[in-house]
Amino acid sequence: MAATVPDRRLIAQHADIDAGRAVRAATWRDVALTANWTLGRGAMLVPAHAVGLTLMPGNEYEFRYRVRPRPQAIERVWSIHSRVAGTGPAYLKVEVPSGSAPVELSPAPRRGVVYAFRASLVTETVAAPSSTEQTLTLAITPQLGSVIIDSISCWEVPRAELTTNSTDDGTDIAQINPGQPMRGSTVAQLAQVYADPTQIGRRASLWQWAVPVAVNGVTTTSYAKTITTSAPFSDDVFSLPIPMLARKIGRNDITSQVRAKVLAWVSSGTGSVRLVSSKNGASGDVNISTTTPAWSSAITLDVDCEDLDSDDGRQTAATPTWDEVDLEARVTTAGPTLYIAAVSVWEA
Amino acid sequence: MASSHYRGHIDYDPGDIAADEPISSGLAFQIVNNANHLADQSAQVRVAWAGVELQTDAFTAETIHSWNHIVTFGPFPVTIGSDGRTYPLRCRLAGRCTQSGTSGKLRLVVGSSEDTRLQLVVLYPTIPDNALQVNTSSTSNAWLTPWPPKTLLTIPDEVVRESMVSRTTIDSVGGDPIDVSVVMVYASVWGYSIDIGTSVVCSGAYIAEYVGV
């Protein structure tokens, strides 16, 4: 079996297909390699976000992210930019997931020096690949001195080759030989892969943000965004909305649906959150009534998808504008506090 | 550039395809279209950040009249198209000044792991293809319009070559070591504060791949 994943993509040629005549094996081979490439090159699970928080030595800080990985991914890499907060030495112990064997990393001595441009990388092996929505955890423990975490990101490592089972959906290139009959199962496999666009090439995450939700295993409110404003919705969680463009599926689509969850809790009472698109309206409200950190119910929202006739993908080609998404939050009655420690938005 | 015939996914019923029976050239055309379209659209969002007040004070350029390194993202892999070039990157920067009546500049540079290159790029008098610059004189956080106008960054071929690394992974769950080639790039934000007594602050960054027109 050789479901090879090429380093660069191919473009299968439409012009090579003539009505009423057999399709060349070379065309099917290009389609198969394109399928393996699209399935196997990995997705960005956590688009990089800045953190800008100083973490104290000897304490373990836990970050959580909600993602829907690609089922083909068997390794993921966490990239962490950090620097020493004071003048003394310091290093980090990092666990991915939280509770696993720690990896020791060196922060940069300060901003602007050579080492500040190099990230610390930690590889996480995926024991059971799955596209099921799940929580990723990252635990950071500074040692000797305080450390500033500048940015965090996570991406899936590309596969060199896929298996041909129903999880990987790889296509065996060795079965496609010019001048020889195609196996019906090979064509059926490719037809199956490309029948459902939700199963291939997902834009895995559109926005991820997290701050420590627990220190030494105990819930902390020190870093979470706090909301005390009661109705109506008026409190933007972030200083600015996030630009968002989803994947275009159908040929006439101008929007696609995204799904979001927030890691939130309240001191008492009930809080509420929603997403608001600058061009496509607001999602429904999602209530938060748990007093310990938990992922909210799903928030769904239509956002602009890419316009492939536009110079930079924005809708519409003639007068491109940004679709910007805000997270709004409130408490339903004055008094309680709503805490938000993570926001995750991914393709529905 | 976009490569599918219909610029969208075409629905068909895979149940109509029986193993060991021929398929029509029309269906083959649709499969080719879908393969190209979904490869076009498998572009990823690499950076998506807008600060909360708690954090943005950490991302300032405090020394005036020189470029200050503010924050670096990555490294992250970038998608390689059929021509061997990376998908173009749709980018934005947000920021503000800390004092009214003052001004500052921010630059976003996407480059290889060579630190000198990132530093050299910000010294260029003109903005290279893999960088964009925004100017601000406001004390309010805002996504800023690049000057000169630019939304897409392209990574020069020589940077792609420098950034291609061979990474060891495993060939399957619990399997053997195997190497894969990836082009890994960093994205750095630099700030330049022009007036005494002010700092320019970066409060947001966004980088997403786009296959191009």
Distance between the termini of chain A: 33 Å
How many E-type strands of chain B? 11
- Largest protein-protein interface: A-B, 109 and 102 residues
Query: How would you state the average pLDDT of chain A, rounded?
Result: 93
Strand order of the largest sheet of chain A: 6-5-8-3-12-13
- Oligomer, anyone? heterodimer
| Inertia-based shape of chain B | elongated
How much strand content do the residues of chain A show?
Answer: 35-45%
Our count of helices of chain A gives: 2
Helix content of chain A: under 10%
Proportion of residues in helical segments of chain B: 10-25%
Structural class of chain B: alpha+beta
Largest sheet of chain B: 6 strands, antiparallel
- Shape, principal axes of CA atoms of chain A: globular
Order of helices and strands of chain A: EHEEEEEEEEEHEEEEEEEEEEEEEE
User: Main β-sheet of chain A: number of strands, strand sense, barrel status?
Assistant: 6 strands, antiparallel
Topology, please?
The complex is a heterodimer of chains A (about 350) and B (about 210).
Chain A: E1 3-4, H1 25-40, E2 44-55, E3 61-67, E4 75-84, E5 91-95, E6 103-105, E7 120-125, E8 134-143, E9 147-156, E10 161-162, H2 184-193, E11 207-210, E12 214-215, E13 218-219, E14 225-227, E15 235-236, E16 242-243, E17 255-266, E18 271-277, E19 281-282, E20 286-288, E21 294-295, E22 299-304, E23 324-331, E24 338-347
Antiparallel strand pairs in A: 1-10, 2-9, 3-8, 3-12, 4-7, 4-9, 5-6, 5-8, 11-24, 12-13, 14-24, 15-23, 16-23, 17-21, 17-22, 17-24, 18-19, 18-20, 18-23
Chain B: H1 25-40, E1 45-50, H2 53-56, E2 60-61, E3 67-77, E4 89-97, E5 104-111, H3 115-123, E6 131-136, E7 142-144, E8 152-153, H4 157-163, E9 164-170, E10 177-193, E11 200-209
Antiparallel strand pairs in B: 1-11, 2-11, 3-10, 4-7, 4-8, 4-11, 5-6, 5-10, 9-10
Walk me through what this model shows.
The complex is a heterodimer of chains A (348) and B (213). By secondary structure, chain A is mainly β. Chain A is 7% helix and 38% strand. In chain A, strand 5 and strand 6 (103-105) form a beta hairpin. The longest helix of chain A has 16 residues, at 25-40. The two termini of chain A are 33 Å apart. By secondary structure, chain B is an alpha+beta fold. Chain B has helices at 25-40, 53-56, 115-123, 157-163, and strands at 45-50, 60-61, 67-77, 89-97, 104-111, 131-136, 142-144, 152-153, 164-170, 177-193, 200-209. In chain B, a hairpin with a 6-residue loop joins strand 9 and strand 10. Chain B is elongated. The mean pLDDT of chain B is 90. Chains A and B meet through helix 1, strand 2, strand 4, strand 9 and helix 2 of A and helix 1, strand 1, helix 2, strand 3 and strand 4 of B.
